[in-house]
Each structure stands twice: as structure tokens, then as C-alpha cells.
């Protein structure tokens, strides 16, 4: 990917701004992107006439267009208005805070369909699937002494050499892991960095909403694989209709999608290394395509379970009973949805009334009992069940209650999460033997028993 826009620094655009249904009423203003904070448009004036209604209404504009002083087309999405009025001035200062901006094209909505493809930089991806875009060659003289080291890399953006993996997740969508090289700096101090990035390709027209959904699902997949919260750091679009033909080559217009993040990451800021992941690309290389296809075509019933599991990976200063409740409810949900009577019959499991938590946990623990880490977990089922009742309903503890809290509850929470990871991995085709191997190779703190 090219790096013509640096999202780690403030970006400012001056120009005229207008609403799609009123292009003749353009207002001068400045758009500013503040890294890790916000996208702010400040207008000198307002759309339409100045009136006291400006103060009485809370307004959200779905789309705002802008033409900048360097001839760029900009689209702002979901912009929330605020005002600053100086009664000594003849015009108001109107501010809009936007959830997203698109540089390089006017779009009508997130649901507008075009022939798009999406390219995303995800810092963790370079560690999870390490690139091999740089090639070194050492040359020797006739005496056998090394006298020259050569570095080379492919410059073809669509070269086959840049593709590490290509997986069709449905009849219209292909997810590619690609590798590339950043070549920056000047003649005396060149800077060369290789990286892996994601490309989402569509055969037919699609909306931005579909592409963003595909990207979100991959972020979720990589979050599970790395056992950390993963978000892309840069998004670039390619519209097949927007290109310049020079001889036999097509050069597509760069269209950037910028969203403010609470915390942007780059490769240098990521402390975790690949051995801290649950698994990396090399670990599942042979089954990666089938796992990814199952991930994208998972039953809708898994979505909240996946969401809660990945949410539990976020690092917190303080842990509470809510963390425990969320995970135990996800585990219950998994059992009710994917270990129902039909499943138990197919796999010759006891067909009892498993509507209560104790037999659910007992069944799941038995299912994964040949995994070494599950053996070491030694989950206290009685304590988990009573704690689930107590913290869900805050009923008075009975004399015989085995409900726990504090550090003991935190210890059981970690063990419940490991069991839930086993459940999710099994759903995507991993056998107990493979899960055991994954756990054995990983040195992640998430898998360490406290």
C-alpha cells in the first residue's frame, strides 16, 4: 500500500462544503482530522439561512460533500452539528463532528453499490502472517569473499508474488493476504519496510457497508487468533470505474476511508510477538482457507458468543463479576445453540435434560477432557454455578452456597474463558488434538492459569 496519507498526524483540508441536495449553497470551512480523537468540520456560516431554529434543533447530516483547495472530493458520514454564535459577528461558526470521512470520491450512502475492492492495513497481520516480500542475495568474488549484498522486491501491485493467500468465502467475495514493501526516505537514507495487508475483492457490485462488514469479521478473526483486540489502521478503496489509462496500464484513484480511533496502533507500538498469539498463519496454513470460510459463514447464533469472547480479551485495570457473568452466559449460549439434542444424538452423547448449568459445564468439560490445559484448569463447577446464580440475581447467599468472589472468581473466569475458546475452535473444525497442539505452542498470558 502507498502511504500518501499519514493518519498518525493531524490532517487539514480547506474548501467549500455542501449538502447533496443543495450543491449551490456551498459554505467555506476547514476539515481537520485529529488522530485518536475526532474528525471536525468548521464552517464559516451554515447550510441554509441563519435563524434561531439553529439553536432549537439537534441535527445530524447523513452526508456532507466537500471540494478542497487541492481539488479533492470528500464525503463526510454521520455528522453531528454544534454551534458557536458571537452576536457581534454577522455569521455563526457551525461545527460538525463526523464518524467517518472518505477522501477521493462523493458517495450517496453506505448502501450505494459500486465495483469496489478494499485494502486494509492491520498492524498485527504482519506479525501473524509474516511477509517475505524482501529478497536478499549475497555475491562472492573469485576468492570466495562476499563483496556485494543485493536487496530486491516486486514493484507490481497486482503481481502474483505479492499474494500470500487467497480464499473465496462466498461466490462473490475473496479475502487475500498480500505482502508489500514501503520504500521511503531520501537517496542518502532510504527506509525499507515490508508488511502484510488485507485485500477484499468482489466479483459483482457491492456496498461499502458490505465491505466494512467483511473487514469487521476479519478483525474479529484476527482478534481471536492473536488473543487481543485487533483493528485496522488504514483503509483504502478501489473503484474499478475510477482510473487513469497510461499506455497499457491502469492507475486507480486512491480513495481513503478515515475513521477516528480511541487508540491507533502501528507495528512498532505492538508489544506482543507471534509466540504470544493463540495461533499464527503458519500454524494453520493447511486449514486456513476452510477455517476462514467457516468463520464467515458461521450461524447467526454464534455472533453474540463470539462478540463476548473477543470483548473479554480487552485488557482491563480492574476485573469484576460482570466479566464472569458475560463469559458464563456465552458458554451457556454456546451449549444451548450448538450442543442441542440433535447434536448429542449424532455424537452419541447422553440425551438427558441438559437445561441446567451444572450438567452443561460437566458435559463441555468432558468433551474437551483430553486437552492438557482443560485438565489443568480443574474448573470448580459447584462454585461457578452458585456464583452464576448469585451475581445474576443478587439473591441472599444460602448457608450451603459455594458462590465465590474476588481473586477466586477471577481465577474461575480465566478457566471459563479457556473452555469457551475450546468450544469456538471446535466449531470451526479444529479437533481436540489440534486445539491441544495450539495451546501447547502458545505462550499467551490469556492461557496462563493464575
General description of the model:
- There is one protein chain.
- This protein is α+β, with helices and mostly antiparallel strands.
- It is 30% helix and 30% strand.
- The chain has twelve helices and 18 strands.
- It has helices at residues 53-56, 123-128, 208-226, 288-296, 303-311, 321-338, 341-346, 357-367, 372-377, 381-393, 406-427, 432-441; strands at residues 11-19, 22-34, 38-44, 60-68, 73-84, 93-103, 113-114, 116-121, 135-140, 146-152, 163-168, 173-185, 190-202, 206-207, 234-239, 243-246, 249-252, 255-258.
- It has a six-stranded antiparallel barrel with strand order 1-2-3-6-5-4. Strands 7-14 form a two-stranded antiparallel ribbon.
- The chain is globular and about 75 Å long.
Give a quick summary of the entry.
This protein is 30% helix and 30% strand. It is an alpha+beta fold and 450 residues long.
Let me know the largest β-sheet. Answer: 6 strands, antiparallel, barrel
- SSE pattern: EEEHEEEEEHEEEEEEHEEEEHHHHHHHHH
Helix content: 25-40%
Structural class: alpha+beta
Question: Tell me, what's the shape?
Answer: globular
- What is the β-strand count? 18
Radius of gyration in whole Å, from Cα? Answer: 27 Å
Amount of beta strand:
25-35%
Oligomer: single chain
Amino acid at each position: 500500500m502507498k502511504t500518501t496519507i499519514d493518519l498518525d498526524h493531524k490532517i487539514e483540508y480547506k474548501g467549500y462544503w455542501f449538502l447533496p441536495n443543495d450543491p449551490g449553497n456551498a459554505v467555506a470551512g476547514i476539515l481537520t482530522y485529529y488522530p485518536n480523537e475526532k474528525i471536525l468540520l468548521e464552517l464559516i456560516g451554515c447550510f441554509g439561512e441563519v435563524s434561531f431554529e439553529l439553536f432549537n434543533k439537534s441535527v445530524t447530516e447523513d452526508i456532507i460533500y466537500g471540494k478542497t483547495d487541492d481539488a479533492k472530493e470528500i464525503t463526510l458520514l454521520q455528522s453531528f452539528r454544534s454551534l458557536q454564535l458571537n452576536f457581534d459577528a454577522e455569521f455563526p461558526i457551525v461545527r460538525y463532528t463526523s464518524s467517518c470521512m472518505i477522501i477521493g470520491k462523493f458517495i450517496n450512502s453506505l448502501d450505494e453499490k459500486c465495483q469496489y475492492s478494499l485494502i486494509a492495513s492491520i498492524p498485527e497481520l504482519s506479525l501473524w502472517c509474516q511477509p517475505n516480500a524482501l529478497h536478499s542475495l549475497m555475491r562472492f568474488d573469485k576468492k570466495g569473499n562476499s563483496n556485494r549484498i543485493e536487496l530486491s522486491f516486486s514493484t507490481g501491485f497486482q503481481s502474483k508474488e505479492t499474494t500470500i493467500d487467497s480464499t473465496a468465502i462466498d461466490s462473490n467475495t475473496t479475502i487475500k493476504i498480500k505482502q508489500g514493501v514501503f520504500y521511503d526516505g531520501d537517496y542518502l537514507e532510504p527506509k525499507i519496510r515490508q508488511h502484510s495487508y488485507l485485500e477484499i475483492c468482489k466479483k459483482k457490485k457491492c456496498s461499502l457497508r458490505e465491505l466494512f462488514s467483511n473487514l469487521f469479521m476479519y478483525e474479529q478473526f484476527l482478534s481471536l487468533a492473536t488473543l487481543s483486540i485487533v483493528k485496522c489502521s488504514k483503509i483504502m478503496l478501489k473503484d474499478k470505474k475510477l482510473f487513469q489509462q497510461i499506455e497499457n496500464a491502469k492507475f486507480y484513484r486512491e480513495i481513503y476511508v478515515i475513521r477516528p480511533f480511541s487508540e491507533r496502533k502501528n507495528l512498532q507500538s505492538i508489544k506482543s510477538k507471534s509466540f504470544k498469539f493463540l495461533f499464527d498463519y503458519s500454524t494453520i496454513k493447511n486449514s486456513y482457507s476452510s477455517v476462514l470460510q467457516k468463520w464467515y459463514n458461521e450461524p447467526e447464533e454464534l455472533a453474540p458468543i463470539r462478540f463476548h469472547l473477543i470483548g473479554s480479551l480487552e485488557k482491563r485495570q480492574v476485573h469484576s463479576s460482570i466479566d464472569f457473568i458475560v463469559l458464563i452466559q456465552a458458554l451457556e449460549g454456546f451449549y444451548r445453540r450448538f450442543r442441542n439434542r440433535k447434536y448429542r444424538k449424532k455424537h452419541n452423547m447422553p440425551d438427558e435434560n441438559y437445561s441446567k448449568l451444572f450438567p452443561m459445564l460437566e458435559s463441555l468439560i468432558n468433551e474437551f477432557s483430553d486437552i492438557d490445559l482443560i485438565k489443568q484448569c480443574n474448573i470448580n463447577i459447584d462454585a461457578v454455578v452458585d456464583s452464576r446464580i448469585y451475581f445474576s440475581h443478587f439473591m441472599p447467599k444460602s448457608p450451603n452456597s459455594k458462590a465465590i468472589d474476588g481473586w477466586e472468581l477471577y481465577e474461575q473466569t480465566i478457566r471459563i474463558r479457556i473452555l469457551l475458546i475450546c468450544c469456538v475452535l471446535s466449531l470451526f473444525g479444529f479437533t481436540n488434538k489440534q486445539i491441544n497442539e495450539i495451546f501447547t505452542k502458545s505462550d499467551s498470558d490469556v492461557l496462563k492459569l493464575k
